[in-house]
Amino acid sequence: MPFIVFLVIVIFLISTTIRIVPEACAMVVERLGRFHTVWRPGIHFLIPFADRIAKRINLKEQVADFPPQPVITKDNVTMRIDSVVFFVITDPKLYAYGVENPIAAIENLTATTLRNIIGSMDLDTTLTSRDEINTQMRSLLDVATDPWGIKVNRVELKNILPPDAIREAMEKQMKAEREKREAITLAKGNKESAILTAEGNKEAAILNAQADKQKAILAAEAQKEKEIREAEGRAQAILNVQRAEAEGIRLLKEAGADDAVLRIRSLETFAKVSEGKATKIIIPSDIQNMAGLLNGLKESLSSPSCSSLSSVPENENEEV
Questions:
Q1: 78, 152, 177: which is closest to 119 by C-alpha?
Q2: What's the distance, CA 138 to chain centroid?
Q3: Model pTM?
């Protein structure tokens, strides 16, 4: 029986002297009522009846969401702003003994800092300067909470709530701005449409003029080509006639025709001419030397179409 009592006492003492600190936590230990040490994560031994754990501290980053605070801007507009503070405990001893209620202290400090910053800004600047306000608050809160073993990592403004009358005026202003932008956009669209239409008409007129010009050029070139072809045809016809006459003369020469043959051929040609309707015939002067032949041709020349025949002196022509 005494052994069992002794065993129970030993187990009780062991359970009260051994402490295990989990990760991301710390314990502030007091000995005989005074600060002794800070236990970090691991196993530690506590002296019974002399040491005690004064405070357990969470070393993780923590978030404090504060309710909306009334603030007044530089142009005397009252609004409500709620903020969020992200902080971490860097010194457990200062956090345990620096301030009675650190969270309440941070909340009050945040409210007063926010009032100071917003009080130097007007309404429009406040609504458009969230980043600047966040940066200033983080810097001021970090300096103020450093003696408490707290480091402020970030401050964010969740909502900025102006009065109802101000919100209605802002909505009307935004509506007017939207209508203004809409009218400007429509005007620009109509202007661009008119410009594009005019440019299209201009390009169409230019293309039509170029088409007419090209059509006239092609017609002129076709007429020119036609006239050239016709002229070449006439020239070729004349050339062919001349070649035929030259070929006839050449053949006569090659045949060895004498003057008598040539004169007979001339008379035959003359007879054919006299059978026509012409009233005037030009007779070469060398026909006078053919007196004998003229007597033989009187009958053929006495046709009604030929009225008279006269000779002309040598080296001259005669009209009949």
A1: 78
A2: 43
A3: 0.53
